[in-house]
From TrEMBL:
Transmembrane annotation, as ranges: 12-33, 53-73, 85-105, 125-145, 152-174, 180-201, 213-233, 253-273, 294-313, 333-356, 363-381, 387-405, 417-436, 448-473
Coiled coil: none
InterPro entries: Poly_Biosynth_Transport (IPR050833)
Main subcellular location: membrane
Membrane topology of the entry: Multi-pass membrane protein
Keyword tags: Cell membrane, Membrane, Transmembrane, Transmembrane helix
GO cellular component: plasma membrane
Name of the protein in its database record: Membrane protein involved in the export of O-antigen and teichoic acid
Top-rank taxon, per record: Bacteria
Localization: Cell membrane
Organism: Seinonella peptonophila
Length: 487
């Protein structure tokens, strides 16, 4: 088991190069955007447009990227892998081109209907849709590189397209192009990198339309679409709901909070990139359930502690990023949004057996229930509590996902995650974080004393509940110095 845990850490560390670079650049650019998108509602309008591009990506890809993670290893030979890849890209790009035509003819009318501000967004949806086409091609090709463990190709182009697009977006925004300028930068950057990758991977394509292979991809991936749509609801619907049920100003604050909360992805995203191919590659080993259990428990503890420590410094960090006095109160909401991101990643570990057994419909059902809870909760709570209602429902929704996915997973692929200990730990952690928020809101003196007490309580809970026994901690600490070694 040790060698496989080591490989997961090694792959996570390797893929972290691109993810950390991308997220750090994105974080460093937030102050630029908040200062130049200074007109009321522009940050919120950016968030609404990102909500559109995210759901567009889900509809065009239709889960075929997740299917490729399975069929890359399940294909009988290299040629069949290439057929799967070619059909996945042709299918996704074709759907996106259809949406591009629709947005070209109906985009102006949709913009007038959706946005409450008075900015000129007549071309916004067309530009954003074309930029999404480039991103979809990149996602498929870099996913293929990741499954083949072509680490440096993945890292260099992941960083190239994100950083390049971001810098181009900054240039357009500084030149006064506003929200539309953001997507001009994405359009140029993403489509350019997509073209370069198509040239690099040209020998990986087998232009053989295959109903069988496309059917395999869709039959595996399409049941995940309700999951992805539900995930879209949980991840992004809060922005339009705050926009319409609370105020445009609150939506501006939420947009900044969401971007700062994405710092937690520095911990979770490298793991998420490595987890799916890793978990599939060891699924036939006898000790696989023990590996899955240890990884899930470690991710929960490491991720939550990272969020807690970031919260200690969140106020000054947020003020630097926001750069505007009218957005200054947003720092208190960031930890809840970060925790929701962590819980979303955890469901992929708790539901690993459902993926192995091809029971993806049960994951979809769990997300569907959570999405309904999330929508109803937001409708009730946002008018009463504003942003607190939106951010608290993020955590509630992902807890619902975890509980449902865990229950379904245990029926067909039992894994001893020590779930009771996890629930105790999560309860204590939430109480500790609520206490920290109370201390910050009331501006108590000597706040560091409260921070250290909360940190010690959470650490002792993790050990006392045997969530991470000392033997497991020693095993993980022994592996960390070797992360950069051979796999």
């Amino acid at each position: 088991m040790k060698q496989y845990i080591k490989r997961l850490f090694s792959d996570s560390a390797a893929f972290a190069v691109a993810t950390m670079g991308n997220k750090l650049v994105a974080a460093l650019l937030v102050p630029v955007f908040t200062r130049y998108l200074h007109q009321d509602g522009q940050m919120a309008d950016w968030g609404l447009t990102n909500s559109y591009t995210l759901i567009l990506t889900y509809l065009c890809i239709l889960g075929t990227d997740a299917a490729m993670a399975f069929f890359f290893f399940d294909a009988k030979d290299e040629r069949e892998r290439k057929i799967y890849l070619t059909n996945a890209i042709m299918f996704s790009a074709g759907i996106c081109l259809v949406f591009t035509l629709i947005s070209f003819f109906a985009g102006e009318s949709l913009a007038k209907l959706i946005f409450k501000t008075n900015h000129d967004y007549s071309q916004l949806f067309t530009v954003a849709t074309l930029a999404t086409l480039g991103a979809i091609i990149i996602q498929h090709l870099l996913g293929y590189a990741r499954y083949g463990r072509r680490v440096w190709l993945f890292n260099s182009f992941s960083m190239g397209y994100v950083i390049g697009s971001s810098l181009l977006s900054v240039w357009f925004v500084v030149e006064g192009q506003g929200v539309l300028g953001l997507f001009y930068g994405q359009l140029i950057g993403q489509c350019s990198v997509a073209l370069i990758l198509l040239i690099i991977f040209r020998k990986e394509f087998v232009f053989q339309p295959s109903g069988k292979h496309l059917g395999d991809l869709i039959s595996y991936g399409a049941p995940l679409l309700p999951t992805l749509l539900s995930f879209w609801i949980i991840t992004t619907i809060s922005q339009p709901m705050v926009y319409y049920l609370s105020s445009v100003h609150d939506a501006d604050i939420l947009a900044v909070c969401l971007r700062l909360a994405s710092i937690i992805v520095l911990v979770t995203s490298p793991f998420q990139l490595a987890w799916r191919p890793f978990s599939m590659s060891i699924k036939d080993r006898e000790d696989a359930p023990q590996v899955y259990s240890l990884v899930g428990r470690a991710l929960l503890v490491v991720g939550t502690l990272a969020i807690m420590i970031l919260t200690f410094f969140m106020d000054p960090l947020y003020q630097i990023f926001a750069g505007r006095p009218d957005l200054a109160s947003g720092y208190i909401y960031v930890w809840l949004l970060s925790l929701g991101t962590l819980f979303n990643v955890l469901h992929t570990v708790f539901g690993v057996g459902l993926l192995i057994k091809k029971q993806t419909k049960k994951i979809s059902q769990s997300f569907l229930v959570a999405a309904i809870v999330y929508l109803l909760g937001n409708i009730l709570l946002i008018p009463l509590f504003g942003l607190w209602g939106a951010v608290s429902m993020t955590v509630v929704a992902y807890l619902v996902v975890i509980l449902f996915v865990y229950r379904q997973n245990q029926k067909i692929y039992p894994v001893d995650f020590r779930f009771g200990s996890m629930l105790i730990y999560i309860t204590v952690y939430l109480l500790a974080m609520i206490g920290i928020t109370w201390v910050q809101l009331n501006n108590f003196a000597n706040q560091w004393i409260y921070y250290l007490i909360a940190l010690m309580i959470v650490l002792l809970t993790a050990i006392a509940s045997q969530l991470l026994p000392l033997a497991a901690l020693n095993r993980l600490s022994a592996l960390l110095p070797k992360l950069g070694g051979k796999r």
